[in-house]
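Final report, Chapter 2: Outcomes

The project's central promise was a pipeline that accepts a single protein chain and returns its three-dimensional structure in a standardized token representation, suitable for archiving and comparison. That pipeline is now operational. To close this chapter, we reproduce one record exactly as it appears in the project archive, with the input sequence first and the structure output second.
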Amino acid sequence: MPLFTVFKLYQKELFFGTLAAVTTFVLFYLMSVFTLSWATTDLGFSRRDFLIIQLFSVLFFMIAIPVSALLADRFGRRLILVTISLLIAFFGLFFSFFFNSESASLVTVFSCLGMTLMGLTYGPLGTFLSELFPTEVRYTGASMTFNLAGIVGAAFAPMIAIWLAKNYGIAYVGFYLSGAALFTFVSLLIITKKTHQF
């Protein structure tokens, strides 16, 4: 069965593929669930106002997906994902500057930048993950890495972020995002060495 084949023969691809995708989910849930919670409870935004900001920022997410797909076709999926991972790590360092403000303009710029980065990493991700596995287990391998990354990156991200913000300050939420992005960056560099065998 493909599932057992992936676990038996492609453990490294599964592990590093999961880490290569984890930042996509951390970023998405920070930019959606965490920011909505923090903005409405700690920054003084009404739920309606911040949801409007988020709806506007989603447009940037939507536009960035096909842009990243075109860039990935031209320059390679790995290069685009590596570059965007570094940009996400850099973005995390400025998390508190943008998001620890009651300025609607700064928060809107912050949301749009975050969602743009999210779209840029989301576009080439599915194809990249499928390329980690040979044809006979490609669908199973890509599905498992994507879903495991969703569990690791998304299930705990809002809770971790709220705990960090409450106990250490909003800057540490950004450091958490930057750390996840660096894990993804390193994983992308490691896993691609293996893919050349296929």
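Archive annotation: Residues 11-41 form the longest helix (31 residues).
This record, like all others produced under the grant, will remain available to the consortium after the project formally closes.
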